[in-house]
Amino acid sequence: MKLPVELLSKAEADYPKTPAQVRSLQSRIVSRSALVLDGLDHLERRRAMIAASARESASLAFERYLGTNDLLPINYLLTGYAQSRAVGRIRYFDKKDRRTAYATGFMVSPELMMTNHHVFPVSDVAEFAALADDAAIEFGYEYDAFGKLGEPVVHALDPEAFLHTSKALDLALVAVRPRDLTGLRQLHDQGYLILNGRLGKAGTGDYATIVQHPDGEEKQIALRNNEIIDNDLPDVLIYKSDTAQGSSGAPVFNNEWQVIALHSSGVAKTDAAGHYLDKHDQVIEVENGRIDESRVVWLSNRGVRVSALMKHLLAPESAVALHPLVQVFSSPAYTDSRPFTTLPRPAILETSGFKGVPVAAQPVSLPPLAASVIEIRVSIGNGQHVVQSTVSETPLQTVALGTLNERKLEDAQDYSTCTGFEEEFMGIRIPMPLPSARLRKQLAFLKDAPGSFTLKYHHFSTILHAVRRVPVVSAINVHGKHRYAALGSSSRKDNWLRDSRVDYDAQLDDRWYAKSGFDKGHLSRREDAEWGTSLALAKAAADLTCSYANAVPQVPAFNRAMMGYHGQWGQLENKLLEAGVKNESSRSARICVFSGPVFLDDDPVYASVQVALGCFKVVVWFNQDGALRTTAFHLSQDTLLEGIAFEALNFDKLFKLQQVPLAWTEQATGLGFAAVLRDADTFSKDSAQADEAALERLVSGGQAHSASTLPEGDRPAQP
Description:
By secondary structure, the protein is of the alpha+beta class. It has 3 domains: 2-342, Beta Barrel (Thrombin, subunit H); 368-412, no CATH class; 413-493 and 502-701, Extracellular Endonuclease, Chain A. A 7-stranded antiparallel β-sheet has the order 6-5-2-3-4-8-7. It has a 7-stranded antiparallel β-sheet with strand order 10-9-13-14-16-12-11. Strand 11 and strand 12 (236-239) form a beta hairpin. Helix 4 (40-53) runs antiparallel to helix 5. The longest helix is centred in the middle third of the chain and has 17 residues, at 396-412. The chain starts with a strand and ends in an 18-residue tail after the last helix.
């Protein structure tokens, strides 16, 4: 996040104290009573506020303010966690800086989120649209009590429904969409924080606790070295606390977990000439009147008082005071007094996972040895359904042991360090494609995060179709560097497993593939994931591509070199990806690839599963001039000869390769790609057939950009 120098100058003008003067204030706070520091009037307001809002003995809370009791009640931690649920990470693509910006925001009503004006330095909806793309707030991006990083619940911002900013107060108030991007989670589940406009919530020497997303990282809390050092300014509080880039817009709390201020900026360290300095005393460059917040050393922090914010919003002359979404602030029910407060309950209390005393594992009873097992296979040919019975000579006990061992490996697989497809991998935000409402209803959701459907691995992520039992898309970051000769084909050993984070029944397995004649076709290739800062990391990433949640049934000629056709899927990746890596070496050899099946209503059935005969691939790359390019392909099998049964299919049938508009891929799959990819589409009407020469032309120089329009006669059915 870039901070306007104007804001820092204002903070310094409001509080022109040197570091020595700040240290002197801190020493004075330690040696003086609350009565001396704040005066009798404020002391009585503080007493009344504590009596109305404290979730403990009011007398004990008041003693803490007076400085005669430093202990905190145990519900301090529980209350703080509950309040923190309304705090989220703001994320948007800054169109001017061409990078993703991060900040902190928090809900202050059922519909409105508060953050800083310098996070959204705009005055109306048009300016907001010109500044930000894909603006959202992410809740729950934090570690839980078991050390697991949660999958965020993402709600898009809705400035068209409401937007109000104040540069003077460094305030931005924006509406948030009521459902998250999955359509399954409600905004009201996060709760909201009350803005109590009355004075008496903060005293000199009180603690100013900040819940924040520093540097866009997981949610964190500043609990140490965070006392209020100056309570005398009318509109702002001055405090010492640990903050960093991304903390802009965070709520500042008192010991009773009331919001006392909106964190804004502070007084920054400078040299004698007024240049801003980082922690190494190096000058921070000023660009277009803004500096890099991550390098600033704060001498003191500055938060805008809640009383000043409410006075501004509810003033009769305010432009928004009569707006229905703002009038909630003046409702008698909008209060943090105990009788009216209902805090959102922490999820850990509802689904802690503790089931009492552990029970000893019971011995496994295996089925008796048998001579054979019957397998039913369904064939489709000439419109006829044919039932075939085959006999396997594998004993049932052997099958049970193999299944048991595989299940143990699947259950034990650890995904806790997997960060998945990285949106900022190419220096431009390229998010995962968003499933349509219709497609979303058919996805497999994570068992421990029912609002999430993205499976994260090393370098890649997938989204699984629960009915088809295969991914709808697999997205991978491909790096031309950090590769290791030791990870050649001779060292490769594929160990295919289902993903334990989703129901096993929503995934195909080896028993389905065993006699089908299909390959387990990687969507994100093992070779593409085979990179990392160490050999061990590269191998771990490559091994995880052997997940059934990253594979689709493919006929061998489509998937590997066979019958003289050399595997067009592999040819495409080798030509386009590897040549692309070579071309854009100045961008650190980075490419993003999205792959998946193209489902059709009349796809043939094998063993009760419809098998897609076509796939798509979207490659994002930089051409020789450094311009972003998006190229979409459709790979499909030619029309089958009439009368050939599906299981008797000639697996060496040549697959047809076509370049298509990205819009075609979106319509065919129900996946919505980011606007930045649509704008970079290389499709043109002259390049619909991607033959060998077309591929060579594409990777050597790049085709002229043109709008993505669907060619006549090539419009897919709705997926």
